[in-house]
Each structure stands twice: as structure tokens, then as C-alpha cells.
């Protein structure tokens, strides 16, 4: 019987999820976060894994630095980080930010008077 090639992270996550409704390997999540970190740091921000709820599949991360005041942080969190984690780690259902609010530092826009 031939075996399909699977990434070590995906294979380990698959092994740990057998026999349960939702089970996430925290180490697999951390590895993926570590892979994404340099891209976020390149824009003067950072990401830290804060919690993995193995029952619900919700991953909690903290975005810091420039991410806190960046207007694109919510899009980065949902369209980037969440999408990548869901694809690479079996059992991830959502990613949420914990820590400082992800909103612009001032009310209004840059061009408002």
C-alpha cells in the first residue's frame, strides 16, 4: 500500500484528532504561527499564540506593535492568519484576537480635520 506524502504538521494534527469531535495540536498551531511571524514582523508587528481551545477549535492570538493601530489588522487576522491556520492545522474553526483592541488610534480617518 502506498502512502501519500503529508506535511509533518498536518500528519501530526490528523493523528491527534482521531477519535474526538475536535482536537487540535497546540504544537502544530505554534509551528504555523512561527512560520507566519516573519511576514508580520516585516510590517513592524508581531503575533503571539495565547490559547488553543481544543474543544471548540478556537485559536486565540495577540497581535502587537503596528498591528494594533493598523486598519488592515482585522483583514489580516481573518483573511490571512485564520485562513492559513484552518488550512494547515486540522480542527481549527476560528481565530480570535486577544489583547489591545485592533482599531485605529484616533477616531476618524487620516484625512479628517
Structure summary:
The chain has helices at residues 8-17, 26-41, 73-88; strands spanning 45-53, 58-65, 94-97. It is of the alpha+beta class and 113 residues long.
Description:
With 113 residues, the chain is of the alpha+beta class. The chain has one domain (8-97): Fe-S cluster assembly (FSCA) (GMP Synthetase, Chain A, domain 3, 2-Layer Sandwich). It is 37% helix and 19% strand. It is built from 3 helices and 3 strands; from the N terminus they run ααββαβ. A 3-stranded mixed β-sheet has the order 1-2-3. Helix 1 (8-17) runs antiparallel to helix 2 (26-41) and helix 2 runs antiparallel to helix 3 (73-88).
Radius of gyration: 16 Å
In the CATH hierarchy, what is the superfamily?
Fe-S cluster assembly (FSCA)
Number of domains: 1
Low-confidence stretches: 12-21, 104-113
CATH architecture: 2-Layer Sandwich
How is the main sheet built? 3 strands, mixed
**Shape label:** globular
What is the CATH top level name? Alpha Beta
Structural class: alpha+beta
Q: What proportion of the residues form beta strands (DSSP E)?
A: 15-25%
Q: Tell me the CATH topology.
A: GMP Synthetase, Chain A, domain 3
Number of helices: 3
Number of strands: 3
Distance between the termini: 69 Å
Residue share in helix: 25-40%
In round numbers, the mean pLDDT is 79
Within the largest sheet, what's the order of strands? 1-2-3
Amino acid at each position: 500500500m502506498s502512502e501519500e506524502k503529508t506535511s509533518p504538521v498536518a500528519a501530526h494534527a490528523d493523528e491527534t484528532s482521531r477519535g474526538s469531535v475536535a482536537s487540535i495540536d497546540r504544537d502544530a498551531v505554534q509551528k504555523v504561527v512561527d512560520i507566519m511571524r516573519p511576514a508580520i514582523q516585516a510590517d513592524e508587528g508581531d503575533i503571539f499564540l495565547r490559547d488553543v481551545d481544543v474543544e471548540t477549535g478556537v485559536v486565540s492570538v495577540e497581535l502587537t506593535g503596528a498591528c494594533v493601530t493598523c486598519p488592515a489588522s482585522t483583514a489580516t487576522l481573518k483573511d490571512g492568519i485564520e485562513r492559513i491556520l484552518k488550512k494547515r492545522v486540522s480542527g481549527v474553526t476560528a481565530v480570535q484576537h486577544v489583547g489591545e483592541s485592533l482599531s485605529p488610534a484616533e477616531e476618524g480617518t487620516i484625512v479628517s480635520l
